[in-house]
Amino acid sequence: MAVYSESVTLFLLCTLVMLCVKILMDFSKRNIYKFPPGPTPLPIIGNMHILDINRQDYTFMELAKKYGTFFTFHFGSTKAVVLVGYEANKEALVKANYDFGERGQIRIVDDFQMNHGVIFSSGEGWKISRRFTLSILRDLGMGKSSIEGRIIEELQYLNESIKSHNGQPFEKKVFYYAPPNITFRILFGRRFDYDNPTFQKMVTIIDYLVIHTGLPPAKYYNVFGILKYFLKTPHTVVKKVEQLNEILRVLYKEARETKCDESFRTYGEAFIQKAEREKSTDEKEKIFTEENLMASTFDLMLGGTETTSTTLQWGILLMMKYPNIQKRIHDEIENVIGLDRPPRWEDQKILPYCLAVVHEIQRFGNILQYLLHATSTDVHFRGYFIPKGTPVVPLFTSILYDETEWETPREFNPNHFLDADGKFLKKDSFFAFSKGRRVCAGESLARMELFIFFTGMLQKFTFTPPPGVDRDDLDLTADSFFLMRPKSYKVCATPRQ
Questions:
Q1: pLDDT digits over 99-108, tens only?
Q2: How far is CA 466 from CA 146, 175, 231, 479, in A?
Q3: CA distances from 488 to 170, 350, 392 (A)
């Protein structure tokens, strides 16, 4: 009995010593880190009391005036760093892209993505999934003439849909439907009629998710995880994703039944073939699982449909707002390629004003305030020492509206992308697709879609506000969801002869 008592005492003593050593080591390690200055946090809530939850970018840009372009902000008890302006973000995302290249935690998304996919994941699984996705997208023609042909074909469906309204007012959602079909062809090998029930259900769910993952309940839940037990939003979002996954499983089941063992025609087929070759791998090490397929598909649907569609909606709103710019686009199109043959990607070289307008729509529309990063290692940056795993806010708004980079950042001005001779001017501070390790995987596809769809619509139509609506009354204030969308509007389209 005495021996047993001594053993227990020794065990407790060793445990106590180890605990003390760990506490001392953690304290010592914390002391070696040096964060940049920032607003003083309050207990529990950190700096949340000074944050405009809908327009966080405005809060951060205002704080930068006091604390500089690299400062600390406390999301509750979590200490993050914020990068404001072109120079700070270039230094971090481009020059130190590995150090700042992990994805930060976004609870409302992580609940259903669970570190799978190509946008919201991190680590080795992300690297393998992204490398695979980029390779397959290139093999399927991303940025090549085969995809261009599909975009031009879809443009005809889009223009027919616009024409069907016979000059009467219609909702901006009409401009939403073309980009998803390009992505769906890549994923499933088929296009959908715009009134197809499956198509409508998928885009409706994506629309719901974009809205509800960006509303205040979701944003507060991202900071305070305990709110999951009190809010409906985290649970309804997961249910909506499950509904989407049910549709995707049916579509991919069809892909399995028709797939060719020697080649692939779609992203789904390529993924399924890769998964079958991975069957012998240990379950814990498998990357190409059904969960990852669902997550990667969601990411491609979000990145390849919602972002492009939202940008097109901004584009038409801005054309109504600025008819002089629309007139200049019309003149360039008519004088260079005419009104008959559809625009092609190579036309960007001879339509510099159209290309400049497309870029300015992306800059001015600024559809994403930021997407959280995290440090992948302990980082020395600008005289500070930031620990591994620190959340990082690369503030895209502050880059696209940087007063040192843009002549009139708060105004819609296509001259931002034109030189003195009227030629297109490439700008390094154009961060619409992010930069570095986390640059948009579908950037080349999105660029092609935006140019062809936008130019192709302006080739065929003049867009004006509905009767009784003055263009000066058109609201350019964004609805702040997961993406920054233009507010609901109606538009009239008059065919050009």
A1: 999 999 999 9
A2: 37, 16, 40, 21
A3: 11, 34, 32
